[in-house]
Write a structure and sequence with these properties.
With 241 residues, this protein is an all-alpha fold. The chain has helices at 9-14, 26-40, 47-54, 58-62, 68-80, 93-110, 125-137, 145-176, 180-194, 201-209, 216-240.
């Protein structure tokens, strides 16, 4: 017989109330952990390092946060609180979903480590706020709750995928010491060789015809518009049915 896991961190915190801000509580611990993750990456976050940063013992932290998993849950939710959701839903679902996507992209660039989290539903207050706001943006379109969730999740998934690619390029530059221009010079001789291969017509077109240094903001907006066009067509199809 296995032991049941403890209640989720949000259940344990829900009965505590806010109360006065103390030198050491879960909010202060979370803030210190986020600062450490922003500086050195989430793998650098440990109860020992957070405790040292705060001038406390690790055991003192465990009285407020039960585990590293609890801590990362608190960190992820706290960062979601930075999303600017003021003024939405506005009544224009497309504009609202586009704004949510832009906010999520901005947040991932501010805190790159959050790309590791959010794959399971989170139950924290800021995650609940995002969920309620996001679904409210796509309400009134004649969709059931599954379709509403699909619409919102598709836009968020596109955004996360786009950002992972952006952050991956940053990580590659740090790992290899080559910026993208240097990488292009490094691969140039082999690419010249590949251009002689008639079996790769689309690779040739990409190399010869595509923009060399596209603005990532422009590319994001262009692709987001394509996603929203597809979602709009899907809504129309459901209505037509």
């Amino acid at each position: 017989m296995t032991d049941e896991p403890p209640p989720v961190i949000w259940a344990r915190l829900s009965g505590q109330g806010r109360g006065p801000v103390r030198t050491l509580d879960h909010r202060a611990i979370t803030t210190a952990a986020i600062a450490l993750a922003d500086e050195d990456g989430v793998d650098a976050v440990s109860m020992r390092k957070v405790a040292g940063r705060m001038g406390h013992s690790p055991m003192a932290l465990y009285r407020h946060v039960g585990s590293k998993d609890d801590l990362t849950e608190l960190m992820y939710d706290a960062v979601l609180g930075e999303l600017d959701l003021a003024g939405i839903p506005s009544g224009d679902w497309r504009a609202d979903v586009a704004r949510l996507a832009r906010e999520m992209r901005r947040l991932h660039h501010a805190h790159p480590w959050i790309a590791r989290f959010g794959h399971r539903p989170s139950l924290g207050p800021h995650a609940r706020r995002f969920l309620e706001t996001g679904l409210a943006c796509v309400d009134g379109l004649g969709l059931d709750i599954d379709a509403m969730s699909d619409l919102l999740s598709t836009a968020v998934a596109f955004t996360r995928g786009f950002v992972v690619q952006e952050l991956g390029e940053v990580e590659a530059q740090q790992r290899t010491g080559l910026d993208f221009a240097a990488y292009q010079r490094h691969t140039g001789p082999f690419i010249t060789q590949l251009l002689q291969d008639d079996r790769l017509p689309y690779l040739r077109r990409l190399i010869v015809e595509a923009e060399d240094h596209p603005d990532p903001d422009v590319v994001f907006e262009r692709r987001l518009a394509m996603v929203l066009d597809g979602l709009a067509a899907g809504i129309g199809g459901r209505r037509g049915g």
